Amino acid sequence: MSTINLQKIEEAVKMILEAVGENPQREGLIDTPKRVAKMYAEMFSGLHEDPKEYFKTVFHEDHEELVLVKDIPFHSMCEHHLVPFYGKAHIAYIPRDGVVTGLSKLARAVETTARRPQLQERITSTIADSIMEMLNPYGVYVIVEAEHMCMTMRGIKKPGSKTVTAVARGVYEQDHIKRNEIVSFIQMK
């Protein structure tokens, strides 16, 4: 599917409202299907984007040391329940041959990857794999921490619980000291 079908979403939302016993023609709900369709088009816009595209533009600098962007906020939708989860991503990489990307490109890759029905584990690995493939750094380490509404507003109902996922590629796969260095930088205020 290459585009989002707003009309189909509107029809589905009307059906959901009816299925839960609501009247989609009630004053407060008349435009709800249209609003939800527009929201889904925005929230799922990443389905039609490739995060690797952001790493096609590179710069050459005399730098082969750590680059870390931390506390990149994001929100996504759990593919199991279609409810939000949100949090922060931290991305570290060590450039090879001085190949670096713009810092905003890292944040854009997070946003694109998150804007689709998603799993936190997949967000983490997709970002790391995209950077490895496109920039060919010595290593990449991505940590994502998020609160999942499917755990806080339904099911187990544990607000405030956070899920942390991490993916290590290249030198970070074996070098625990380098990984611990990243974690200590992330914890710095």
Structure explained in plain terms:
The structure is a single chain. With 189 residues, this protein is an alpha+beta fold. It has two domains: 6-43, GTP cyclohydrolase I, N-terminal domain (GTP Cyclohydrolase I, Chain A, domain 1, Orthogonal Bundle), CATH 1.10.286.10; 54-187, GTP cyclohydrolase I, C-terminal domain/NADPH-dependent 7-cyano-7-deazaguanine reductase, N-terminal domain (GTP Cyclohydrolase I, domain 2), CATH 3.30.1130. It is built from seven helices and seven strands. The chain has a five-stranded mixed beta sheet, sandwiched between helices. Strands 1-4 form a two-stranded antiparallel sheet. β2 (67-78) and β3 form a beta hairpin. α3 (103-114) packs across α4. The longest helix is centred in the last third of the chain and has 16 residues, at 120-135.
Topology of this structure?
Elements: H1 6-19, H2 32-43, E1 59-60, E2 67-78, E3 84-94, E4 99-100, H3 103-114, E5 117-118, H4 120-135, E6 139-148, H5 149-152, E7 163-170, H6 171-174, H7 176-187
Parallel strand pairs: 2-5
Antiparallel strand pairs: 1-4, 2-3, 3-6, 6-7
